[in-house]
Amino acid sequence: MYKYNDFDHAFLAERNRQFRAQVERRIDGSLEEEEFRPLRLMNGLYLQLHAYMLRVAIPYGTLGSDQMRQLALLAEKWDKGYGHFTTRQNIQYNWPRLKDVPDMLDALAEVDMHAIQTSGNTIRNVTADHFSGAAADEIEDPRPIAELIRQWSTDHPEFQFMGRKFKFAVSGATVDRAVLKAHDIGVKIVKNDAGQVGYQILVGGGLGRTPMLGHVLNDFVAQEDLLPYVESVVSVWNQIGRRDNKYKARIKITVHENGIDEFRRLTEERYALVRPTFGGADVALFNEIKAHFAPPAWRNVDTAPFQAAYDADPVFRAWADTNLTAHKAENHAIVTISMKKHGATPGDATADQMRIMADLADEFAYGELRISHEQNVILPHVAKADLPAIHAKLKEHGLATANIGLISDIIACPGMDYCALATARSIPVAEQIATRFDELKLEHDIGHLQIKISGCINACGHHHIGHIGILGLDRAGVENYQITLGGDATETAAIGTRTGPGFAYDEIVPAIERLVHAYLEVRDNAEETFLETYRRVGMDPFKAALYPPVDKKVA
After folding, report:
1. Confidence label for 49 from pLDDT (cuts 50, 70 and 90)
2. Is the pTM of this model over 0.90?
């Protein structure tokens, strides 16, 4: 993983020094909140419903064990003992005191971490496939590209005060685990007919109040051309994008209003001017960065202990079936640690849990962890022989929930419990759904089913691309939850379709239960997933279950 150099350390120290002075001026009254707001947003600090919230960047979801322990320290020393992993692979602290934030940033800098550009109208934290560098279906590790984009975009003078925020995602695999089509720019590593590695560029995706899927802007950009090409894309949008209406300022609207062909023409025109200005420095930097991401030397160990435990222990087998993914080294596996214990807040991790996961990474996983946009934690490289021991330790600490990809593995934004923009609660709905289906003992029978919940139209819970999406809204002061079906976050991405009228807070969980029972009745066989069934039979049987006819009494 990338290690900061002297320039990085000096840059971060100066940024933190500046912000410490700005915080002091806000506290003594020299800065009013209106003046302080753009300064704090540049450093990841929000003012939410009850307190400030600090959003810390975890670039492309990669953490070292020392960094995870430092995140635990922040939670314990300056917050309420926990942090919240988000759908941008960041971590949020919901209760810091303003006077403590500079100390938190200095503590982060000690382990090469920061909160720069996790907010504001700039290029946000670059996300990636959470199995990067480990997945069996990977063409090439995309994290060096993500790091290159992070360094290029940090404090880029042209892109600090744009019309709206801007989001990148990168992937190097055949399966899309980074939701490329829902980003302003998606970068997918591909090979051309000659076997050369390059990048397919997607543009104009995004969720929020106007959900759209990205378009292919360029099927193949050569490695040496990537950075000037994406700079040209962002520059064109920054010049012609809407500034009269913030709801129409995202690049998806710009592409929609101008058409992909015209946007491509403008990008190529801009690229012809931009490319000569790079002079090869970006290629040299990329090669330097790549050296940081050399894979560890895989341990050559026998897989027999894993197979023995798998055959003998049904609890271990259930966990292995749901929480393990194929690794590029045959005698290794990728372990996903669920942060969705039934009834718990999705994405929350206590300081103790963070330290336990850091210890496991050191003992069994080459010191590496990942954070997924699905709000779980990953040990990317684990020898299969060590899996029974890992499972035993996870079970001992309440971290062995076997539900990855199942109905209780819910993505949820903080909702009205924390967020100043939210119009409804998300966390309690997620907790109740998970608890209910655990009581019914149905989730393993149901199989792969992704529920995503947002507490407002901004869609931080990605509800548009959930197999079942739930959107909480305010209707005349009352929480109302709309349901969408058929969303898909993978390479076959789709925006879900609204089923009909929304449901009250106390009606939403029973509605989801009826929906799932309808699926179990109409699916073709036990292997057919919810999404496959929906695509085969359509909306009608689900709508009938959600909105049963009301019997009318005859006078």
Report:
1. confident
2. yes
